[in-house]
Specification:
The protein is built from seven helices and three strands. A hairpin with a 2-residue loop joins strand 2 and strand 3. Helix 5 packs parallel to helix 7. The longest helix is centred in the C-terminal third of the chain and has 27 residues. It is globular and about 55 Å long.
Length: about 160
């Protein structure tokens, strides 16, 4: 309970916003391509955390490999959900992966913050860095692969 009450106040509105966006993604929607172009930037959100780990080189390598695997999966999956692309906009079918990816990244960062406060010695091991990097790399890669598939898709009528 102390972890929940000790979290910074801004964490809870962020969680609410991510949940709202994730739940909305379960419905068919039309997005501006600008949003699609920004999706790969999600992979950069964990970069400062990875660089601050004691074994940053190992963590970055694990993140890159996991990002590649996630991007491959995201690229393939996006083909199922991409309904139309025209006029600087894209129509996407409802899906649960956006919610799962956002909650995975949020949870990983939340757990990392909690570990820093409750058990900082755990963060010094290479296994922790590899686990954190792999989880965040896979989740971020899904967004990157989906963006790539959408950007490369031909325009439809």
């Amino acid at each position: 309970m102390m972890i929940l009450t000790s979290a910074p106040l801004w964490v809870w509105p962020l969680l609410a916003l991510l949940l709202l966006l994730g739940l909305r993604s379960r419905q068919e929607r039309t997005l501006p391509m600008t949003v699609v172009y920004l999706l790969p930037a999600i992979g950069l959100l964990t970069l400062p955390t990875l660089l601050a780990l004691p074994h940053a080189g190992i963590a970055l390598a694990a993140h890159l490999v996991a990002y590649g695997a996630g991007a491959t999966a995201g690229y393939r999956l996006q083909g199922r959900w991409l309904l139309a692309k025209a006029g600087g906009r894209v129509r996407i079918a409802g899906e649960n992966l956006t919610l799962a990816g956002m909650m995975t990244l949020f949870s990983a960062k939340f757990v990392h913050g909690a570990m820093m406060a409750a058990a900082p010695a755990v963060l010094s091991g290479w296994a922790y860095g590899m686990a954190f990097a792999t989880v965040t790399g896979l989740a971020a890669g899904l967004f990157g692969g989906r963006a790539l598939r959408t950007i490369m898709a031909p325009r439809t009528a």
